[in-house]
Write a structure and sequence with these properties.
heterodimer; A: 308 residues; alpha+beta; 6-stranded mixed beta sheet; 12 strands; globular; B: 564 residues; OB fold (Dihydrolipoamide Acetyltransferase, E2P); 5 domains; 5-stranded mixed β-barrel; 41% strand
Chain lengths: 308, 564
């Protein structure tokens, strides 16, 4: 069942979406069976994660070669994960995905926990996105979710502490490995992370953790912004609106980012939005809507610019 | 529009992408900063990547402009051929060490790399020279242990000391990726950190030594050897000398060029003709008695292939067994032993003064060896004088080791030796599809695949229940196989309940139900472990989900964190 020259199974990190989303660095060994990693700003070398949250979207996507691909978004207190389930996924994962898609369509959001592989994607323009490929997932209740949150928070705090400790040291393997404040499993990742990301601001992660702990403690009022987590019915209501504005923001930022003066071509907008989990169909509709509202214009056919 | 705020970053980007004009780069930085709130140090890499990918620039630093006026290259093999004012040198070297550091050069923060390199990289044991080097624009191709060809480097002389400068225009070509752990020759390593193979230098005290013979398999004679054990404060290691070895127990030696070979799971030092063994003087080196304490192992330390093991253990079961080899009836005594760290087996080839009806007893074992069978260590006693029966045991008499389980963290189980009588707590990260009913071969109990056994072919099989999970503590993971009793307990089901549920809902539905109950949750399991190169496996006879109070834990985390 297993190929023999195989690397040991990589451990799974409990991680909030914000830390995973912020990562723009990956690492892959040269051997066929070498695992690949996404390295977060806090120095986690992530091959596999355990994440949980509200399933916000899950839709089937057409792909060029006719295979089936589902894309979805999972929201935890700190932000969203993007994930995809394709034909390569196990049968049970695909069955669950179909069932969940039906629930989403019927307007029944669910709390989901998944064990997933970290994926890394770079657009032609050089922007880096992370996403997940779930291996196994299940519907969970609020209690299991709260327990997951505490573990993810503990993990984030441990990494923040190690990161802060690393600032006092030369960013080298040796210095980190001999420090008592840096756990062995963070040494490699922190060296790479410090050299790649430079200065980072922990404030956002601290806020995420505080808010997540509020949720785990049941102090929903303290979770200042309207995070659609345990409060399923409320989340359900603003679903439509937030999805639309997410896509709008996404489309506009793509155009703004990629515009070299002549506007951005239709396909570039769609494929970049697709990498962020929006269907080409929705994106196309959004481009129409934005044109109608006069937010963007089409200086030549198929090229979009933001109206200044 | 950039007002020069990105100038240092633009210069850095241009090093990688020499053909791109600074305005394009400045515009890119500005766009990242304004539109995405990404400061230049964060966006630099993405910008370089996008500029490079648009016109696949080779990853070397040779630029078009400098090659037009290239000087004559001085190609050398040895560092000793170089003079202080040599430039444009080409040489093949091995990188011994590589460090990065920030340095301020003319008011600008720059990263440079420095370390040691060694010439004559292809000779296994030849004469080699080492120089320091500095890489002014750190090449990703330099890694410790790699052999590289440096082109266009120059010599730097400072106070009579020569070193190499790898300049921005230099080329670094990797010839062999770094794999070998590099250690300075003649520099002793701690015994505990020796690699599992390769040539090493150690300083250690002889704590045991005896003459031995190796009989050639083809019967053509035997070779006289010396076996023994060497210790420093970090640990001990067995040795085997193929040459005469006359140092006595207690001698402090420096041994250079010994070869480490790993037999079963146990590394051993081999001394041959090229090994240099000499007396070493260090008044502060620990004495034999102190060092010998390290050979006293607990059951959790036992590894397949260990020799010269001393231990104090309790014998909980003991029996004489008879077997026939080559038509001759032979005897073997074997049983169960335990200590506070776990349980394992012991076998003796001579009769020991043990009364089976008066167990448990405590014994001290000296110089015994360890074999493992199905992952469980088995201590082998070759002579009765290796066993001393103790009047009193060093631990509380009331402890019944035969039923105890020792709590061990998963990471330690996964990276340690195979153990019996352990329990651990970790997160369930996978529930395998074949959890539930399985068919086992009637001959060997192996799980049948499509009604077939790998060695006994098609057979009806016996029905069994087991669950197959993967558990993970964030540092390591392990397979967890729970036997029938443990599985049914965990599910709070009888075998009939289980059979009814699976036949009415289907196997995949059953597994998905298990996931909803268990995935991402904390589980505590007890049993034994088997650890090999494939990874670790726990065979559990009991398992339970751990109930947790998230509210309390969150409050606790916040309190410990101390951030409000």
């Amino acid at each position: 069942m297993q190929a023999s020259p195989r690397a040991k199974r990589q451990p799974a990190w409990h991680m909030l979406a914000s830390e995973f989303r912020d990562a723009t660095l990956n690492e892959k060994g040269s051997g066929e069976f070498d695992p690949s990693f996404v390295i977060t700003k806090l120095g986690a070398k992530v091959n596999r994660v355990i994440v949980a949250g509200l399933l916000e979207r899950l839709e089937i996507r057409e792909t060029a070669n006719g295979s089936t691909m589902y894309q979805g978004q999972l929201r935890d207190p700190s932000g969203q994960h993007y994930f995809s389930v394709g034909d390569y996924a196990s049968e049970s994962m695909r069955e669950l995905t179909v069932a969940l898609t039906e629930k989403i369509e019927a307007g029944e959001p669910e709390l989901i926990l998944m064990v997933a592989k970290a994926r890394w994607y770079q657009t032609e323009e050089g922007a880096v996105y992370t996403s997940l490929r779930p291996e196994e997932a299940c519907i969970i209740d609020g209690k299991t979710y709260a327990n997951w949150i505490t573990r993810a928070c503990q993990g984030t705090i441990d990494r923040m502490n190690a990161f802060s400790a690393s600032l006092e040291l030369e960013p080298t393997q040796q210095a980190y490995a001999s420090s008592d404040s840096i756990p062995a499993n963070l040494v490699d990742g922190l060296v790479t992370s410090r050299n790649h990301y430079g200065e980072i601001d922990l404030e956002q992660y601290k806020l995420n953790v505080m808010q997540a702990l509020d949720i785990a403690e049941g102090k929903m009022a303290n979770a200042t912004t309207a995070v659609p987590t345990l409060n399923l019915s409320a989340a359900d209501e603003d679903e439509g609106g937030s999805e639309g504005s997410d896509l709008e923001e996404c489309a506009l930022s793509i155009i703004r980012q990629l515009d070299q003066g002549d506007g951005v071509d239709f396909d570039a907008v769609l494929s970049n939005a697709n990498a962020r989990g929006f269907s080409r169909q929705d994106s196309e509709a959004m481009l129409d809507e934005l044109s109608e509202r006069g937010v963007i214009h089409e200086p030549r056919f198929g090229w979009f610019k933001i109206v200044e | 529009m950039s007002d020069g705020q990105f100038d240092t970053y633009i210069t850095a980007v241009q090093k990688e992408c020499p053909d791109v004009d600074s305005e394009t780069i400045a515009a890119a930085f500005l766009k990242y900063q304004e539109d995405f709130k990404i400061p230049p140090q964060d966006s630099m890499r993405s910008i370089i990547r996008s500029l490079n990918s648009s016109k696949s620039v080779p990853s070397t630093r040779s630029s078009g402009s400098s090659s037009s006026k290239s000087r004559a290259t001085k190609k050398v093999e040895r560092l000793s051929e170089l003079k202080a004012d040599d430039k444009e040198i080409e040489i093949e070297v091995e990188i011994i060490s590589h460090n990065l550091r920030e340095q301020t050069i003319r008011g600008e923060q720059k990263q440079i790399a420095f370390g040691l390199l060694e010439d004559n990289p292809w000779a296994e044991n030849g004469d080699k020279n080492r120089w320091e080097y500095k890489d002014w624009a750190p090449s990703p191709n330099l890694a410790p242990g790699s052999i590289v060809r440096l082109e266009g480097v120059s010599v730097n002389e400072y106070q009579g000391k020569m070193s190499l400068n790898i300049n921005q225009s230099s080329r670094v070509v990797v010839i062999r990726e770094g794999t070998r752990a590099v250690v300075a020759p003649g520099e002793a390593q701690d015994i505990a950190t020796l690699p599992s193979d390769g040539y090493v230098c150690v300083v250690g005290r002889v704590i045991s030594s005896r003459e031995d013979q190796i009989h050639k398999k083809d019967g053509s004679g035997s070779i006289d050897i010396v076996r023994g054990r060497l210790a420093d404060e970090s640990g001990t290691i067995g040795f085997l000398s193929w040459e005469s070895f006359e140092h006595e127990v207690g001698a402090l030696l420096k041994i250079d060029g010994a070869q480490v070979r790993t037999f079963r799971d146990t590394p051993e030092l081999n001394f041959g003709r090229t090994t240099k063994v000499e007396l070493f003087h260090d008044k502060n080196f620990a004495d034999t008695e102190t060092l010998s304490v390290q050979t006293v192992l607990t059951i959790s330390d036992l590894r397949d292939g260990s020799r010269d093991v001393d231990a104090v253990v309790q014998i909980t079961e003991w029996a004489k067994r008879t077997f026939t080899r080559d038509g001759v009836e032979k005897y073997l005594w074997s049983g169960q032993i335990a200590d506070p760290t776990g349980r394992c087996r012991m076998s003796a080839w001579e009769d020991l003064p043990i009364d089976e009806n008066n167990l448990p007893i405590t014994v001290r074992l000296k110089g015994v060896r360890v074999r493992a069978w199905q992952g469980i260590p088995d201590i082998t006693v070759d002579n009765a004088d290796q066993v001393e029966i103790l009047e009193t045991s060093p631990w509380d008499e009331d402890i019944d080791f035969s039923t105890q389980t020792v709590e061990v963290v998963l990471n330690e189980l996964a990276t340690g030796a195979s153990r019996v009588g352990v329990s651990t707590e970790a997160i369930v990260v996978s529930i395998r599809e074949d959890s539930g009913f399985i068919q086992r071969c009637t001959e060997c109990r192996r799980v049948l695949r499509d009604g077939h056994c790998a060695t006994h072919d098609a057979n009806a099989g016996n029905t069994d229940v087991r669950m197959r999970l993967v558990i993970d503590d964030g540092l390591a993971s392990m397979s967890l196989l729970i036997n029938k009793e443990g599985s049914l307990d965990l599910l709070a089901m009888t075998e009939d309940d289980l059979s009814t549920e699976i036949s009415s809902n289907g196997q995949s539905d059953f597994v998905q139900t298990l996931r909803s109950k268990m995935l991402g949750r904390n589980i505590r399991a007890s049993g034994r472990t088997i650890v090999d190169e494939q990874g670790g496996m726990m065979l559990a006879d009991s398992a339970e989900l751990v109930e947790e109070d998230a509210e309390m834990k969150a409050t606790e985390i916040r309190a410990q964190w101390g951030v409000n």
